[in-house]
């Protein structure tokens, strides 16, 4: 239950991404700078936190011990997540981006068979391939249905071009984010705290963002002061606060696939915070009709996830007590 609450708070800060990325695009800012600057701003902030906690050397040691895995999965989890997301925000409407992003709550569940779980046996520890938690998958699909219903009122203007530039990049991002996160939890093996892991992933993904920024400078020139400020806000709110909180929640739930799916499903609540933010900051009309039904389904789905996560933990605890 605590992990789900942390995930919901993280999604609130992550909602800033959708609002400000769209705002930057409407004011003429390039997605190349919106994506790369976020991680350039994140790096010194995370570095300061890790240094103050005297944890820097341990991060470097972990990266040196497995550099290829670190670079690969950090680039997937951060690069192939955020670059396509900001690209889509530049070419597709905000409702389409926010709605399509909800695929990530199902993507995380479907990726379960790619990972193994260590289990004790008579001959020592063995690795068992994880199975898709069907109950969690069903609830996540229910939440995804709610997100689709919220966006249904906008579907009349949907075009093939929106599919290519507004949907496909977000689908890539929706799978890349949980894949990179889960793989890095596996690589780090619990030896690093959340700040160390986020810092390490940011550090080794910098070459990717350097290439993006160089291309941005050559193609569109330097970023405006307004884009610098808004990207800094995104870096603090979404990059440092939201990412750290979300990774804390997934770290706590990583040994239970059903619970982990529930935590990943909390990202669906970002769409609720986006709606609130647009009504409050952009004077958008308050949702009604189908949108209210979709909101109700998302809330119901999250409550159901919370119930089964807590109920499953209680059953596991009872079994341990009995044994």
Question: Which descriptors apply to this entry?
Answer:
disordered C terminus; 79% helix; mainly alpha; single chain; 323 residues; two-stranded antiparallel sheet; 2 strands
Describe this entry's structure for a reader.
It comes from Evansella tamaricis. Keywords: Membrane, Transmembrane, Transmembrane helix. InterPro entries: EmrE (IPR032713). The chain crosses the membrane at residues 5-24, 30-50, 70-89, 95-116, 136-152, 158-177, 198-218, 230-249, 261-283, 289-308. This protein has one domain (2-310). Helix content is 79%, strand content 4%. The protein has helices at residues 2-26, 31-52, 56-65, 67-91, 94-101, 104-110, 134-151, 160-188, 194-220, 225-253, 257-265, 270-281, 290-322; strands at residues 116-121, 124-129. A hairpin with a 2-residue loop joins strand 1 and strand 2 (124-129).
Q: For the largest beta sheet, what order do the strands appear in spatially?
A: 1-2
Structural domain count:
1
- What is the tally of beta strands? 2
The multimeric state of the shown protein is single chain
- pLDDT below 50 for ≥5 consecutive residues: which ranges? 313-323
Instruction: State the helical fraction.
Output: over 70%
Question: What is the element string, with H for helices and E for strands?
Answer: HHHHHHEEHHHHHHH
Mean pLDDT over all positions: 81
Main pleated sheet: 2 strands, antiparallel
Shape: globular
The total of helices stands at 13
State Rg: 20 Å
How much β-strand is present in the residues? under 5%
């Amino acid at each position: 239950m605590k992990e789900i609450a942390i995930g919901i708070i993280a999604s609130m800060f992550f909602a800033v991404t959708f609002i400000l990325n769209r705002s930057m695009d409407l004011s003429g800012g390039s997605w190349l700078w919106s994506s790369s600057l976020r991680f350039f701003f994140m790096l010194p902030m995370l570095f300061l936190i890790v240094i103050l906690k005297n944890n820097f050397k341990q991060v470097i040691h972990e990266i040196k011990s497995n550099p290829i895995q670190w670079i690969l999965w950090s680039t997937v989890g951060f690069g192939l997540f955020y670059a396509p997301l900001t690209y889509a925000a530049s070419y597709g409407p905000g409702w389409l981006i926010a709605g399509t992003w909800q695929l990530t709550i199902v993507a995380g569940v479907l990726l379960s068979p790619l990972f193994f779980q260590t289990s004790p046996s008579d001959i020592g520890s063995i690795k068992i391939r994880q199975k898709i938690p069907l109950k969690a998958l069903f609830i996540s699909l229910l939440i995804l249905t709610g997100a689709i219903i919220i966006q249904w009122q906008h579907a009349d203007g949907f075009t093939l071009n929106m599919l290519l530039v507004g949907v496909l990049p977000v689908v890539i991002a929706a799978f890349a984010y949980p894949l990179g996160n889960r793989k890095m939890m596996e690589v780090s093996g619990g030896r690093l705290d959340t700040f160390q892991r986020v810092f390490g992933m940011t550090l080794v993904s910098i070459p990717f963002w350097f290439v993006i920024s160089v291309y941005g400078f050559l193609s569109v020139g330097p970023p405006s002061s307004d884009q610098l400020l808004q990207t800094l806000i995104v870096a603090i709110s979404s990059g440092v606060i939201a990412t750290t909180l979300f990774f804390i929640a997934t770290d706590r739930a990583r040994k239970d696939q059903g619970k982990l799916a529930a935590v990943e499903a909390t990202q669906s609540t970002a769409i609720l915070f986006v709606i609130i933010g647009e009504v409050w900051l952009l004077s958008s009309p308050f949702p009604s009709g189908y949108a209210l039904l979709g909101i109700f389904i998302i809330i119901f789905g999250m409550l159901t996830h919370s119930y089964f996560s807590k109920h499953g933990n209680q059953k596991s605890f009872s079994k341990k007590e009995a044994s």
